[in-house]
Design goal:
single chain, 276 residues, alpha/beta, 60s Ribosomal Protein L30, Chain: A, Alpha/beta knot, 7-stranded parallel β-sheet, 11 helices, 34% helix, 18% strand
Length: 276
Amino acid sequence: MAEIVPVEAAPDGSADPRLADYTDLTDVELRRRREPAEGLFIAEGEKVVRRALAAGYAMRSMLLTPKWTDVMRDVIEETSAPVYQVAPDLAERVTGYHVHRGALAAMHRRPLPPPADLLRTAHRVAVFEDMVDHANLGAAFRNAAALGVDAVLLTPRCADPLYRRAVKVSMGAVLQVPWTRLESWPQDTRLLREAGFVTAALCLDEKSITVDALAARRDDRLALLFGTEGDGLTPGALAAADLRVSIPMDAGVDSLNVAATSAVVFYMTRAARLRD
């Protein structure tokens, strides 16, 4: 069982070095540089902390406000990592925002698997190209988990799924869905081809088939490619794809945002597999 260590504010206002993992959590650029380099990520809130542990991630430390100590008692009893208890105002001063969920944990990252390892047993995968918005990425991962996507592949410029906001928006789904990064894009579409996947690019193109037609094909191995908000998929990704697919729209709307698009397409292709 971990010892609960009360931590108080230093008289000179300096940050306690034991809380270094939690400092300046709202500084996106700082955290994007620090966290992968130091092999850590932050799980925020009781549910996300529990899902991270259930997914096999090891805890570095936990930071709790007093009201959350009893709520997390079972977690405290099962960890050997230090547990720091701080007043709400100190938590806000250290992190840079009001920690209303009262529970944060610094977790160890794990090495990412080679893409071929994920593709070996998968039948339906999502490929996110250059998605830099953490909220969209987190929502798309949540859709993937809810709708039975086997794995997620990220292109090199994609945002970090383990950044705090992405983890939070996904409700911990980024810790459940197997994922990794591709090293070279769109050249790595060859990995999908070699593994027997049909690649379907979601885009606005008059030559596209509808998502209903895609689902009716019932391809055994299907890779769904999603681009960025606004620009969509790059010309290289479109040229490498086997199919171009669109969602029919009404009322003069030309498209949905990428997270909503992923939900529709994941559901439609999942329904086809369930019928099989």
